[in-house]
Amino acid sequence: MKLEDAKKEGRFRIGLIVPSSNTTMEVDFYNHLEEKSSVHIARMYLDTTTKEAEEIMVRESAPAAADMIRTLYPHVTVFGCTSGGSIFGMDYDRKIAGDLTKMTGAGRTVTVLGAVTEQLQHIGAKRIAVFTPYIDELNRTIQSCMEEEGFEVLSIQGMGITVNFDIGVVSPEEILAFARERFKDPEADALFFSCTNMRALDTVPILEKEFGKPIVTSNQAAVETVNRIYRSVMN
Prior knowledge:
Blueprint: H1 5-9, E1 12-19, H2 25-32, E2 37-44, H3 51-70, E3 76-79, H4 82-86, H5 90-104, E4 108-111, H6 112-122, E5 127-132, H7 136-148, E6 152-158, H8 164-169, H9 172-182, E7 190-193, H10 204-211, E8 215-217, H11 218-234
Parallel strand pairs: 1-2, 1-3, 3-4, 5-6, 5-7, 7-8
Helix pairs in contact: 3-5, 6-11
């Protein structure tokens, strides 16, 4: 589906592909997308947040999810998993985007890592502090991807959660407390909160006031990228 067809139709269709256990990303999309956007969900099976489980998710579940999304003729497809795109580096994330574009027929595919990189570059961040709900195995893949894109990762702090559903249960207040406890890099240009199932978007105004720095979250970056595409097409 060509992006410019959205203006003719008067509605901007987004195919959002998320892990099956994600309870946060679609809510954030519903709450923050532009008015004439509609979001439609397909799920990839994922229970545990490990590199092995996410590799299986991308290889085995993503194609089936993309095939379902294809039938609604999306203008944009979103691959809604930060760590799933990071497990073999940025070229792997870009390959996911290319494959999903072909499989869904969308005018464009947005990956979360690509959106985060774009957002960090837009605000001029060079040195970043990263906060995640992940175990060290996944933290290393996130750090590697950020460094591939030219950012200096001053530190990466993980909560060590291995059940993806449990990530979505962590409250915004607990995320704020975790950041307060673990923040140790006042020289950072920005703070990045990684994971589409973490309710970090709700904490952005408080975090920015608390730390006096720009905050980038996975869902915030994905939403803002989709909204920019929307405005370029619909206005």
